[in-house]
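Section 3.1 - Work completed
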Amino acid sequence: MTNLELARFARHYGARVKVCRPYRAQTKGKVERPIRYLRESFLYGRTFVSDADLNAQVLTWLDTVANVRVHGTTGWVPAERFATVEQPTLQPLPTSPYRTGLVALPARRDAPLAASPVPSVVVERRSLQDYAALGVGGAS
């Protein structure tokens, strides 16, 4: 998607594009920090046998951990803040989707499935201090 196309897409959905300078974590913390939280609070130490398993586990985690804790910066429970502050400001989506001109081809239903099973993946939990001790990144 080109910059002009991105601007058209954002305008269609009533969104604004905010450009941040590269390598400036101070300007992107609200976007980047939740990824670290997801990785450290949810992913590390778990095993997923399929996409469906990952989706089921993350939905449970959202309902029992992420959306019910008191957020350290805002002081709000995320689910309560969304329902009270953010959801009332949401606008309905446009009646027609944004048209890109791209064409999606239907998947072949008669194609044979891959013979190999989906492997399990175990993500080991490590603290940032472990990486700092190795000289990789910094503990923050």
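Second construct:
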Amino acid sequence: MTSEQITAAIGALEVALASGELTIEYSGRRVTYRSTTELVAALDYFRRAQLGVPASGPAPASADRGTYAAFERD
């Protein structure tokens, strides 16, 4: 998918989520989700794709925004 298609999908999913609809249309495609949970999962998928993060699994270090503590034994 192109970045424009991903952006269009995110916009359509956000509108559908806000309005309670389960059917979206973007870039000439029409998709009907079975539940709000499925729609939210699709939104998460496209947001991750937009950031270049793999669709599943842990995010790469470049996408990490957290802070971690390290403990060592002396």
